[in-house]
Amino acid sequence: MHRKKIVIVIEYLTPEIKGLSDVWARVEVLCANFDVLVITRAPQLKKSLKSSRVMVFPWSSKSMGSFAFYLSCWLFIWLLKYDWLFLAEMQDAPSVLFTRKNKTIFYGNVHPFQFSAVEEGHTSLRARIKRFVYLQLVRLSLIRARKILAISPQLREVYISLGATPSRVTIQPMGVNLSLFSPGSNRSTDFFRCIYTGELTRTRGSDELMDATKIVSGVLPSFRLRILGVSNDNETNLSAKASKLGIRQNIEILPSVGHSEVPNYLKDCHIGISLLYPTAYYSCSPPTKIFEYMASGLPVVANRISTHSDYIIHERNGLITELNAEAIAAAILRLAKDTDLRKCLSIYAQVDCRMFEEGPIIKSFINEFE
């Protein structure tokens, strides 16, 4: 039986990068089931993917930018014989433009604007030109791709608006590993603890959550907010903000840990928090954390945005609130005081997250390459 050959283009993705566990799970399963060649700029992938061939383009240094990498991909892929070309990151879309075959599969878990620089507030002429050129390359790539796997209905519509053929774009949720994330039995009794996983920034509601913590701790001194996955620079900013508000003793600021270690930090918590500003990126990409919270039996407090409310159902598996300190604090205090409601939401959170179990989703992903 012919063992299918798959070329995977990965510019920088490594297991250590936060928030991309879904992408990495798909790369690993391809390496386990097919004859895979990985083309990358990340030398460390040689150690992470020992079972597969890894081609590192060392001449594509950071100083030369992504252009050298893409050009190398174009030339190299042109000479290869393969069954499928898999692009694990949307930023690698230009790699498909000059391939001889139209057998390309995109896994899309981000809005294209994420890589456009303008999304970050850069509005110079150079940034605008860069954004325009990049989006044109993405458009051409989406038109040429055979299959596009979008993680949400919103992202599917974005890809179609950029030129993808609707029949080629299917929705494939990220998925959550239910054998890794499960309800804890040692919820803290000394503190009422909420957790936020990931880098807490302004567009992820840092100001609103800090102010909400001040309100809640004034009513409930035993309240603790655990923030897991904070960079060194951001730790300084968050600590300064907490100290200024007089709530430093109510906040635990912890650095990033391996994905397999995250469940240990959820098991003694009572609520999971997710806050997003309505940017182009966050309006299309549901955060991984909400599924991990649900699988861990944590009711989720989240603000009103479709990438939350499509999964978090108000007063069933969590509470949907407005993105302001008073509303967030009110939701936290409601769950702190109403034990029966919290238990009910916890049960349904566990039930509802089964629809996003990683195992069946990964199986359907593999089938796309058969």
Give an overview in words.
This protein has 370 residues and is an alpha/beta fold. The chain folds into 2 domains: 5-172, Glycogen Phosphorylase B (Rossmann fold, 3-Layer(aba) Sandwich); 192-355, Glycogen Phosphorylase B (Rossmann fold). Helix content is 39%, strand content 16%. It has helices at residues 21-33, 45-48, 65-79, 125-144, 153-161, 206-219, 232-245, 262-266, 288-295, 306-309, 325-337, 339-352, 358-367; strands at 5-10, 35-40, 53-56, 84-87, 104-108, 147-150, 169-171, 192-197, 223-228, 251-254, 271-274, 300-303, 318-321. Strand 9 (223-228), helix 7 (232-245) and strand 10 (251-254) form a beta-alpha-beta unit. It starts with a strand and ends with a helix.
If strands are numbered along the chain, what order do they take across the biggest sheet?
3-2-1-4-5-6-7
Number of domains: 2
CATH class of the largest domain: Alpha Beta
Structural class: alpha/beta
Q: In whole angstroms, how far apart are the ends?
A: 12 Å
Number of strands: 13
Q: How large is the radius of gyration?
A: 22 Å
The chain-level mean pLDDT equals 87
- Name the poorly predicted regions: none
Described by the principal axes of the CA atoms, the overall outline is globular
Instruction: Give the count of helical stretches.
Output: 13
Described by strand count, sense and barrel closure, the largest sheet is: 7 strands, parallel
Query: What is the fourth-level CATH superfamily of the largest domain?
Result: Glycogen Phosphorylase B
Report the CATH topology name of the largest domain.
Rossmann fold
- Element-level helix/strand string: EHEHEHEEHEHEEHEHEHEHEHEHHH
What is the CATH-assigned architecture of the largest domain?
Answer: 3-Layer(aba) Sandwich
Strand content: 15-25%
Helix content: 25-40%
